[in-house]
Amino acid sequence: MNIRIGIVGYGNLARGVEASVQLQPDMELIGVFSRRQGIETVSGVPTYTMEDIPNFKGKIDVMVLCGGSATDLIEQTPMVTKYFNCIDSFDTHARIPEHFANVDKVAKEAKTATLISCGWDPGMFSLQRVYAEAILPKGKSYTFWGRGVSQGHSDAIRRIDGVLDARQYTVPKEQYLEAIRNGETPDVDGYKGHLRECYVVAAPDADKAKIENEIKTMKNYFVGYETVVNFISQEELDRDHKGIPHGGFVLRSGESTEGTRHVIEYSLKLDSNPEFTGSALVAYARGLYRLAKHGGTGCYTVFDIPPAWISTQSAEELRAHSL
Ligand code: NDP
Asked: Is the pLDDT confidence value at 193 over 90?
């Protein structure tokens, strides 16, 4: 029998999950649950309200939660965990322990299994950090993000007076990547390692110098970063900057014995952040389904799922073709 998938919340990530489920030979999408009425899905799969969720008990194996991390998942993941095994992409790193504890309590009481914070960061990048640090205990780890669109920073620029539209790219600084790849261990943090590149559409009568100054002095967003502001037309923004690309690098530079150096590098170059994140969630939905079949209950992360469990291949096939 196929793994029966439900989606809760229908935005960019949900459409990525929907597309990825179509590619899986062992899954089917049962429905989408939304706070809004009358939405249409890309695949034509039926939509339901949040109140309908409990009625699907026994008809859905894993619910993929696609709400936003800022306010939705903190509430929705424990709520849906009462009825179903769930997976989410919660990416507010500082609040992961709190979210884990809330979900774990509900899941243990309900005897369900929920995997939180899947995606690429947290998610695939987290796995690479664990592998690299376990293999090279003596060394230094680095994470760089980009080149990619930061939705949060783009929104923050759009809120400035006189700004009509904006896109902000986070760009890793090549000189640090090169140094690490050459076996050096430069002293670089997130601020020093990234450039913030802004493309801004200003109103015709707006004071561009003032807008640029407001961007560069915005606390928690741009202060501390090298920031470049480019003013462009709406046509240029729509033509050249409409995608949601992202990606980044996890690197570890270390040594096994004095002077014997090793560099581990994992990189992602994503045309679409939500489509890739959705693909990771779907693969791990399979892993979670198998974990639940093995009797797992409570809250989990990507660290708890064996790689073989996310694959569509059998253990024999994996040994023959992927070892
Ligand atoms: P969206 O803003 O597109 O969707 C979030 C929620 O907003 C949806 O679940 C939906 O809920 C509601 N919504 C969507 N579109 C509309 C609309 N037109 N009008 C009103 N409400 C709408 O966010 P994303 O899908 O882009 O991202 C979701 C989360 O994924 C992010 O908050 C981020 O935390 C996480 N993420 C995690 C990553 C990782 O690597 N771990 C990477 C990328 C993202 P409803 O249908 O109920 O109204």
From this structure: yes
Please give the biggest Cα pair distance in the chain. Answer: 67
What spatial distance separates the first Cα and last Cα of the chain, rounded to whole Å? Answer: 28
**Non-local CB neighbours of 247 within 8 Å, separated by 6+ positions:** 145, 146, 147, 148, 267, 268, 269, 270
Is this complex's ipTM strictly greater than 0.85?
Answer: yes
Alpha-carbon gap, residue 72 to 65, rounded angstroms: 9
Distance 274 CA to ligand 1 centre (A): 9
Q: How far apart (Å, rounded) are the C-alpha atoms in residues 85 and 25?
A: 20
Residue 208 has pLDDT above 90, yes or no: yes
Give kind and range of the element (H or E) at residue 249.
strand 246-255
Any ligand 1 atom below 6 A from CB of 9: yes
Cβ of 91 below 6 Å from ligand 1:
yes
CB of 77 closer than 6 angstroms to any ligand 1 atom: no
